[in-house]
Design goal:
Helix content: 25-40%
Strand order of the largest sheet: 3-12-15-14-13-16
Shape: rod-shaped
Largest sheet: 6 strands, antiparallel, barrel
Structural class: alpha+beta
Number of helices: 4
Distance between the termini: 86 Å
Mean pLDDT: 85
Low-confidence stretches: 30-36
Length: 370
């Protein structure tokens, strides 16, 4: 092939350059004239506004359920056999009802013996008094010395004292006889029994425990700061460990605060016949009043990395992830204490599928969606 001349080579290079430039300009023009494809919406969503509701202000505390007063019933006499035990744990009793009975044969024998001692003392007293009267009648005759007369009078006074002592002993024996019947000091329910039929118990030994009037109370532990917000008469909702809910009322506040724990006790009366039982642990909520709360449905709040978020909708329908603080929860609504205002537009549900900046397609709310 014949070699091209220098002039022909230059012309060829120019032609190729012009052709390449024309192709580039044509492609650039096509790019400018081709419309950009519109981004697709990430999710169709409903939009709501936070609403204000009058919600109760409450204070939550923990504590134990105990008896209002628990009477300890013991033996007032000792060394006697328990002949019968008439009640068991859980028995509802009335004031004066017999709970147990000691054997009384020995006590009755002691009473009979003491009555005999009284009869003897009365006879001795009568004889001593008669001698004293005769001695005083002979006082001026010289038949008896002054010393002898005084001895007769002293004997009479001694016999009177012995009779009085014997009568006192009889009262003691009669009292022991009455104490052989163990009776309930008040209406209530038996919470503990240690009495055993046939046992010989010493004086003062505990036989029963009685929850007086079957009244229970919840002793809530609150801090010194919280104590100032509680008042007698306030209503309390107490939830037992079994899940039972019991309505109570504050009876009194402890006059002191524990120096070790810095907590104080609040005594809450519980109704008779409720599901509460002495010894249960319970959580309670004190009703302190009402206040307005800015709320959203629980479905509008998303938790991520330990924080709560909602998705606001911008003017151009983009999702704006917004961190919020939450407070009380009632039903399916949650209080928003910080992060948004009442005029904010918030995604009602489905926030878990969104990301910050997603384009949204807002659809109208149905009548019962919000």
């Amino acid at each position: 092939m014949r070699k091209l001349s220098r002039k022909s080579l230059i012309i060829l290079v120019l032609v190729l350059a012009i052709a390449g430039a024309a192709v580039w300009i044509s492609q650039s023009g096509n790019k400018r004239t081709t419309p950009a494809s519109a981004p697709k919406a990430a999710l169709a969503v409903n939009v709501i506004h936070p609403q204000y509701h009058d919600w109760p202000i409450s204070l939550v505390a923990n504590g134990n359920i105990t008896a209002w007063q628990e009477a300890v019933i013991g033996s007032e006499t000792g060394g006697i056999r328990l002949a019968s035990v008439d009640v068991n744990v859980g028995a509802v009793v009335k004031r004066g009802q017999v709970l147990a009975q000691f054997a009384t044969s020995t006590l009755q024998a002691d009473i009979d013996q003491q009555q005999a001692n009284i009869a003897e003392a009365e006879a001795n007293l009568a004889d001593a008094q008669a001698n004293a009267v005769r001695a005083r009648a002979l006082q001026g005759s010289g038949a008896l010395s002054t010393q002898q007369i005084e001895q007769y009078q002293t004997s009479a006074r001694t016999a009177q004292a012995r009779l009085d002592a014997a009568r006192a002993q009889l009262k003691t024996q009669q009292l022991r006889f009455r104490q052989a019947r163990i009776v309930a000091p008040d209406d209530g329910v038996i919470s503990s029994r240690s009495a055993t039929e046939g046992a010989v118990v010493p004086t003062g030994q505990e036989l029963f425990r009685l929850i007086r009037q079957n009244r229970l109370e919840w002793r809530a532990q609150v801090t010194a700061t919280e104590l100032a917000r509680v008042r007698p008469g306030q209503r309390v909702s107490v939830v037992t460990a079994s899940g039972a809910r019991v309505a109570g009322k504050v009876r009194m506040l402890a006059p002191t605060v524990d120096t070790a724990t810095r907590t104080a006790l609040v005594y809450v009366d519980l109704p008779t016949g409720s599901a509460a039982r002495a010894g249960m642990f319970a959580t309670g909520s004190f009703e302190l009043g009402q206040a307005q709360a800015l709320t959203l449905p629980q479905s509008a709040v998303v938790m991520r990395d330990g924080f709560n978020y909602v998705y606001r909708v911008s003017a151009d329908n983009h999702a704006l992830q917004t961190k919020v603080r939450v407070g009380r929860r009632i039903g399916d609504r949650v209080e928003i204490t910080a992060g948004i205002q009442s005029e904010a537009r918030v995604v009602a549900a489905g926030g878990g599928f969104l990301a910050d900046g997603d384009l949204l397609r807002v659809v109208p709310m149905t009548a019962n969606t919000q």
